């Protein structure tokens, strides 16, 4: 038992109930690699055996602890890479297989990420018939020029066709749009934001382009990237244009129409549980201990698709690492997620999800409220506008070393 578990018991903190369960499925292949992307994604090899990968994912999924497998899955997210490269048959087998291993709630949100260059309306229909009820389209831009600079496989007409097809097949869909792109001006971005907001999308994710280590853009950065000040103005512009069209910003990059927040991501951000299958996928599960405490277990799958397949086919699991998150590390993990939410979370959720009593961070919360980084309401843990601007500093205040020093232990 760790020090914090002992203190929790001594102070009679409630044994927490287990959080909602989600499932992340990772499809690691794309038509080709985009120059800005550092996701675990690879150019699909010729003659890829997709059914072999699907069957392996199902074996891998069955390898999660039995206690976790009894808890119904409330959301599923098929991410990548480019899961829209899957055939309808492969997706159907995957989702049927998931249901034979794990209970899935009747109203589960089931999202699939699609690249406009890989799917048409007929394919969207197949995906919907297989159980997908939410689509996330990687549009990035509605401009031929900027799509070209991003090395995308589709042009603006392809992006618009995909949005129209998504609107005919799905009631609920998201568009990913990137901003602060090479050569982009505020006026150009205004047009992008308006077009996204005027589409039938129910959810929009606006990501500021970041230059990630190890990518082609890191090796040869575009010379005409907007500077920091312009990028900040762009973020504000996006928020204003989307708000005028009825999209509320509820997370750093997430905007939703009423009732259309992404349930899957909300579960991550409220420190919920999620199991995972697929190369490089990570999961986190809370497991009750007989003494009334609980453990938080994290597992990561082999990132290389070849190693992932080999591990499953030889030992029945694709896990490369599995470890327990000590109580001391949970406050930071919790805040890393919860403080991304514009409205934050109820203060009581901290203890319910981490098993760490609120008093451990109470003084820190007070200090951050006094400095205007957290909202003053003691019933909530929520960033102010200023707090969102200095999000990393705010999150880092809950690192184990920072808390230990602060609490004078
Ligand atoms: C896994 S991809 C989405 C699905 C599909 N692979 C596609 O690109 O169409 C997730 C999203 O992350 C965003 N993204 C990826 N790399 C980024 C970067 N370096 N900076 C900002 N956003 C990025 C893109 O908007 C992308 O759509
Ligand atoms: S952005 Fe999407 S399509 Fe491009 S390489 Fe990354 S995962 Fe693949």
From TrEMBL:
Keywords: 4Fe-4S, Chaperone, Cytoplasm, Heme, Iron, Iron-sulfur, Metal-binding, S-adenosyl-L-methionine. SUPFAM superfamilies: Radical SAM enzymes. One of its GO terms (biological process) is porphyrin-containing compound biosynthetic process. One of its GO terms (cellular component) is cytoplasm. It is found in: Cytoplasm. Its cofactor is [4Fe-4S] cluster. CDD domains: Radical_SAM. InterPro entries: Aldolase_TIM (IPR013785), Coproporphyrinogen-III_oxidase (IPR034505), Elp3/MiaA/NifB-like_rSAM (IPR006638), HemN_C (IPR010723), HemW-like (IPR004559), rSAM (IPR007197), rSAM_sf (IPR058240). This is Heme chaperone HemW. It comes from Sutterella megalosphaeroides. The lineage of its organism: Bacteria, Pseudomonadati, Pseudomonadota, Betaproteobacteria, Burkholderiales.
């Amino acid at each position: 038992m760790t020090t914090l578990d002992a203190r929790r018991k001594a102070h009679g903190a409630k044994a927490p109930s287990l959080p909602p369960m989600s499932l992340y499925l990772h499809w690691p292949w794309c038509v080709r690699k985009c120059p800005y992307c550092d996701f675990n994604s690879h150019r699909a090899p010729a003659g890829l055996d997709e059914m072999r990968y699907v069957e392996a994912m199902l074996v891998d999924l069955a390898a999660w602890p039995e206690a976790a497998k009894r808890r119904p899955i409330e959301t599923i997210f098929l991410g990548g890479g480019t899961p829209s490269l899957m055939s309808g048959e492969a997706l159907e087998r995957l989702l049927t297989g998931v249901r034979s291993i794990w209970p899935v709630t009747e109203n589960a949100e089931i999202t699939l990420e699609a690249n406009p260059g890989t799917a048409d309306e007929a394919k969207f229909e197949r995906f919907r018939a297989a159980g997908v009820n939410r689509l996330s389209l990687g549009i990035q831009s509605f401009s031929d020029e900027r799509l070209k600079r991003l090395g995308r496989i589709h042009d603006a007409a392809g992006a618009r066709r995909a949005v129209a097809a998504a609107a005919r097949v799905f009631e609920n869909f998201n568009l990913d749009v990137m901003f602060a792109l090479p050569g982009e001006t505020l006026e150009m971005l205004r047009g992008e934001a308006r077009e996204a907001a005027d589409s039938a999308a129910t959810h929009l994710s606006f990501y500021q382009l970041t230059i990630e280590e190890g990518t082609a853009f890191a090796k040869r950065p575009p010379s005409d990237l907007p500077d920091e000040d312009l990028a900040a103005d762009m973020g504000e512009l996006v928020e204003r244009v989307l708000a005028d069209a009825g999209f509320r910003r509820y997370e750093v990059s997430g905007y939703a129409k009423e009732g259309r927040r992404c349930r899957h991501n909300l579960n991550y951000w409220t420190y919920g549980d999620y199991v995972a299958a697929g190369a490089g996928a990570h999961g986190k599960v809370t497991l009750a201990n007989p003494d009334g405490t609980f453990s938080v277990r994290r597992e990561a799958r082999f990132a290389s698709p070849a190693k992932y397949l080999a591990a499953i086919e030889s030992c029945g699991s694709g896990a490369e690492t599995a470890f327990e998150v000590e109580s001391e590390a949970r406050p930071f993990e919790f805040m890393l997620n919860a403080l991304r939410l514009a409205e934050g979370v109820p203060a009581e959720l901290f203890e319910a999800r981490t098993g760490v009593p609120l008093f451990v961070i109470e003084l820190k919360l007070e200090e951050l409220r006094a400095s205007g980084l957290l909202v003053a309401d003691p019933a909530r843990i929520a960033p102010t506008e200023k707090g969102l601007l200095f999000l990393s500093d705010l999150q880092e205040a809950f690192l184990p070393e920072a808390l230990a020093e602060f609490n004078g232990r």
